[in-house]
Amino acid sequence: MTAPLARTAKPARRSLLNWLLGVGVIGWAASVLYPVLRYLRPLSEAGAGGPLKLSAEELATLGKSHFVIARSGTRKVIVFEAAGELRALDAKCTHEGCTVQFVPGDSLLWCACHNGKFDLDGRVLSGPPPRPLVKWIASREGNDVVLTMEKA
Amino acid sequence: MTVLLPLLLVLNQAGPAPAADDGKLPPSLEALFQEKDKEGKLILGDPERTYLKKLPPHTRELIGKDVDALTVGGARHLKALLALELPSQNAAILFSDNCILCHTDPESQKKIHLFSADPKATQSSEILNLKSFVSDVHFRRGLSCSGCHGGSPANDVMTADIAARWPKADVRHTDRTWIPEFCARCHADPAFMRGFNPSLPTDQLSKYRESQHGILLLQQKDSKAAQCVSCHGVHGIRGPKSRQSSVHPQAIPETCGRCHADPKYMAGYKKDDGTPLPTDQLASFKKSVHGKALLEKGDLGAPACNSCHGNHAAMPPKVSSISQVCRTCHSQNGTFFDGSKHKQAFEAHHWPECEKCHGKHEIMKPADTLISDARDGLCGSCHAENAKDNPECNATARYFRSSLLELVASGQKLRPQAEALGERGLDAEPIVASIEELNEAIVQTRARVHTFDRGGFDQGAKLGRDAVAKSEALVQAARNEQRYRRNGLLVSIGLMSLLAVAMGLKIREIGRRRARASQERQGP
Amino acid sequence: MIEAQPEAPASFGERLYRWLDARFGVGKLVEFARHKEVPVGGHSMVWYYLGGTTLFFFTVQLVSGVLLLMYYQPGEATSYESIRYVTAKVPFGWLIRSIHCWSAHLMILSLVVHMFSTMILKAYRKPRELTWLTGFLLFAIALGFGFSGYLLPWNELSFFATAVGTDSVKSVPVIGQWLLEVMRGGPDVTINTLYRFFALHIVILPLLIVGILSGHLIFIQVQGMAHGMAHQRPDRPGLRFFPDFLLRDLLLWLMCLIVLAVLVYLLPYGPGIPGMEWELGKKANPLAPAYPGIKPEWYFLWVYQLLKEFPPHLLGMEGPQAALLVVTVLMGIWALVPWLDRRASRGQPSPMFTDLAIAAIIFMSYLTLKAWDIGGHGVPGKLPDPRSTAWACAWITLGLASVIAVLRLLAYRQRWMYFSGAALLQVVLNGILGMDYLIAGGIALVVAIGGLVVSRREPAPQMGVPR
User: Fold this and answer.
1) How confident is the model over A50-95, as pLDDT tens digits?
2) DSSP-based three-state secondary structure for C318
3) I want to staple A116 with a disulfide (CB 3.0 to 4.6 A). Which of A129, B78, C122, C380 is the partner?
4) Does B436 touch chain A (CB under 8 A)?
5) Chain A contacts of C91, Cβ < 8 Å?
6) Are C156 and C289 in contact (CB under 8 A)?
7) Taking a contact as any Cβ pair under 8 Å apart, which residues of chain B between 495 and 514 contact chain C?
8) Smallest Cβ distance to B429: which of A23, A35, A73?
9) Which domains does chain C have, with CATH numbers?
10) Cβ–Cβ contact C77 with A under 8 A
11) How far is B422 from chain C (nearest CA, A)?
12) CA distance A113 to B350
């Protein structure tokens, strides 16, 4: 009979094809699952959009010099200690955008570019800056210092 | 009855009601609303009625009395006055001041004496603009015509004391020497000014006497020199904070330029060394970085003429004083300069510090290529003569220039790289932030040129180089990520294509199997 | 052939099957599945796959959407920032987001082609009217998904696109203003609008679509897939669904997935066509002036352009109201096609409705091309010239329509072209001869109705032979 002969010839090729199919399916599943699983695993650093945290390096600088300029992306915030509490202001001068510095002796923030001076609340004391510095809120959470924008 | 009693009590408690403002106009005023013009249309209408209703009743009464007394000459006159839309206090001043009423009535004044509300009035002088007059700071504080001109607002005719106030007409428009003292009668009297604005200075006249303009006008009797009216105007004086004021920082260059940029007017005036006074300062200033900041960007922190020359004590600043003025804003550069070799050199030669390299009116944004040790370059030309024995100086200049150009070039190379990476879907934000840091470092480095010392300069240049290195590392990391994504894609496409091929073969195999099975059924 | 086979021990699969069958009667389902067929007929099989590809892309949307939901936080300070975080920091976040955006457009593209193919092949005819109707509802829901999802990144582009898009609802008579405020959560587009759109996008519309899609699919299972029209169909056995059609279907889905992956890699932010780009850009700032050249997504462009063609007042109505009325009437006709097309319900050739579909394609293509300002020589700072836009788009549409007409004439021997002819007439009058769009439309409508009346009097035309 032709049938059984035909049947014995096919299994080898069929099983090869099935094997290929199986490998293909596993390959496909891997290509889909690998990115998804990596995506789902949470990252260690701060989550989306929320508060800025000072990096370890920045925390160390804060401890040593009592002020630090924290950066995250294109944002920069100056965090300093005044009257025992932690304060934070936007470090971008409102005149031409230079980074301001903290002058503890005079209790002010100074912009070296055009000698603009701000008090510790961000208000303009003298010089060309047209607007006060935007306020941030700095709070200690455990060992971290967390920065959030002040609500409008 | 029991209901009525409490009701009556309640009504009684309310007390007498205040006189209701029913918006009625006095009869003579009402009559004006019937007046028609040549074409038969009513002159006054609803806008005027609405405005009048907003005024308190006593002001309306006042206007009614003016109409009765014919100081308000007719509907057209009233319309021009009401069109000013003054707040009620100022309206009360206006309508009780006969000087203003007569001198705004086209039917009772010659054009040369007429205050017109039309800004394009050709025959009356620009100082007789009614709109500008009612915004005048003196008028708004209650000092009206009689305060300067004399007479009384209640008069309805000209009196002799008005003409006696100051020199005759033919003299007073050519001889201006009386003006500063006239204004100072109030403005130099602290007790008087305290009643209006205690913080306003009262030393303008004494400063003016020391100024170049004051010397010319008061000592040399030169009436071409500027006095109070030249800068502040007469009937439309506004404080310097108002944008329309002629002494607002953004208006000052033009105000000074009215004389100082006019070569015909300034002909004959000379500097101390005998050369004629230049008239290109305004044009230079407008091209300069300060001029652009003040006039184009609207940065009120930028200096106008008075920031360096002074207001009432205007004088060309002397050699040593100008650099101190620059330091009010550019303090850091000043500090660097003070600690540098150039400080003693410049003092020894009596050179003006900042101005020597940067100019005074046409201060442009300094290009890095300004630093040049070439024979005709900024540094080289001076060093050739004065630092002949110090080849170090030229070498330092070369070092400054090459370092800055290198940093700037790196930044220019990095930016498009960051943009291209961003467009490909990679996170370019850290690179952009790092380039910002580079730009800040370049600003610092440029400031540190003023130390004229490699060590001082390098403190800034090092930050710049670190920023470049960091940016380049970030770009490389992003490129690696891109390669990772591409390879990942190729692998996954490869695997999926493998599956696709396998499936295709399977489909074909099933088809063949079925065809063979049906063949067998039909076959033997 | 009966072969005596020894009793092999039942495999695990067989035992599981028997366990389930004893409890749930799955045997009937399996029987049904074994006999399910896909008709093989006078037209290409490719059209039968389009519903499946739409479903595939929708599944991709569901999965990628749920994954994005793990990180997305709606809120004034968090919407934009969380999307930025996902695309920049989360591993493969860029991939998931880009897949979600690409697949949205591919899904709607597939849906539109599926809709037009069922229209032209008259799969809507009795007894499948409700399948068509549910399909129409699914189309509307899909557009709703697209519109609501667009706002969620809270960037400049989506903010202004939403402001422009929601603005048009105030022209609805009587309830217009109320509808506007309910949609926007206030008179203007604010973060409250985002909260509502978010609820719409992840709960309300998904529930609706699951319900209506189930109906749509159940109808198909119960009634089987539509055969081609009787006069076109030679007698051939259908293609078995399991495993033949299913394998081909899955293969096609796999290829769609590969195409999607390639697109995501090469064009992570879309092809850069206005209305089809999703670079994150800047965060929405309600105080900033409107985005120049703002355009809604491509599938809304024809309505957007139509609104622009109407004058401020027309026949006592406000322009936008009149435009919305026209759109409503057209959509109404489209939804009711199974009931309007009585010839197809009787199994008779219905060339008029084939032509209606072609007319719709011409009508919408011309408006969409115009909305893209093609040929308008627009440069930044200078508005594109509407006349030259109309001219260029008219020629393109004319070319497209000619190709379709030649194909119909030669390959399918279709000669009923009054509706498509009228649509093309409007295009020519407006674009090439410079006539006002609405006046051209009026003339075209008269021609269309005239053609309808004339054709009623003619004997039934010969339908084309199958290829």
Assistant:
1) 567 788 888 888 888 888 888 877 788 999 888 888 889 999 999 9
2) strand
3) A129
4) yes
5) 35, 38-39, 41
6) no
7) 496-497, 499-500, 503-504, 506-507, 510-511
8) A73
9) 25-284 (1.20.810.10), 349-467 (no CATH)
10) yes
11) 10
12) 27
Specify the DSSP element, H or E, that contains B422.
helix B391-423
Angle at B496 between CA B490 and CA B501, to 5 degrees: 120
Q: What is the pLDDT of residue B8?
A: 54
In chain A, which residue's Cα lies nearest the Cα of B436? A74
Q: Are C107 and C142 in contact (CB under 8 A)?
A: yes
**CB contact C253 to A (< 8 Å):** no
Instruction: Tell me the nearest-neighbour CA distance from B328 into chain A, angstroms.
Output: 7
Within 8 A of C251 by CB-CB distance, chain B residues are: 500, 503-504, 507
State how far the Cα of C432 lies from the Cα of C438, in Å rounded to an integer. Answer: 15
Query: Where exactly are the structural domains of chain A?
Result: 1-41, 52-149
- Which value does ipTM take for this structure? 0.82
Contacting residues of B for C261, CB less than 8 Å apart: 489, 492-493, 496
Nearest to C255 among B485, B489, B500 (CB): B500
Report phi then psi at A85, rounded to 5: -110, 160
Distance in angstroms (rounded) separating the CA atoms of residues C314 and C351: 34
Q: What is the pLDDT along chain B (524 residues), one digit of tens a residue?
A: 555 555 555 555 545 555 556 778 888 888 888 888 888 888 888 888 888 888 888 888 888 888 888 888 888 888 888 888 888 888 888 888 888 888 888 777 777 777 877 655 555 566 677 878 888 889 888 888 888 888 888 887 888 877 777 777 788 778 889 899 999 999 999 999 999 989 999 999 999 998 889 999 999 999 899 999 999 988 889 988 889 899 999 999 999 999 999 999 999 888 888 888 889 999 999 999 999 999 999 999 899 998 888 888 877 765 556 778 888 899 999 999 999 989 988 888 888 888 888 888 888 888 888 888 887 788 888 888 888 777 888 888 899 999 999 999 999 999 999 999 988 888 888 999 999 999 999 999 999 999 999 999 999 999 999 999 999 999 999 999 999 999 999 999 999 999 999 999 988 988 888 888 888 887 65
Which of B432, B491, B501 is facing A74, going by the closest CB pair?
A: B432
Which chain C residues are closer than 8 Å to B429 by Cβ? 84, 88
The fold of A52-149 is: Rieske Iron-sulfur Protein (2.102.10)
Q: What is the DSSP string of B374-396?
A: STTSHHHHHHHHH-TT-HHHHHH
* d(CA B486, nearest CA chain C) in Å: 7
Distance of CA C457 to the CA centre of its chain: 35
Cα→Cα distances B315→B213, B303, B309, C395, C416, Å: 8, 16, 6, 73, 93
Q: What is the pTM of this model?
A: 0.77
- Report CB contact under 8 Å: C247, B506: yes
Q: A117 — contact with chain B (CB < 8 Å)?
A: no
Phi, psi of B88 (to 5 degrees): -65, -35
Nearest CA in chain A to C250: A25
Tokens linked to A45: 């650093």
The alpha-carbon gap from B469 to the nearest alpha carbon of chain C, in Å, equals 22
When CB atoms are compared, the residue of A3, A28, A48 closest to C85 is A48
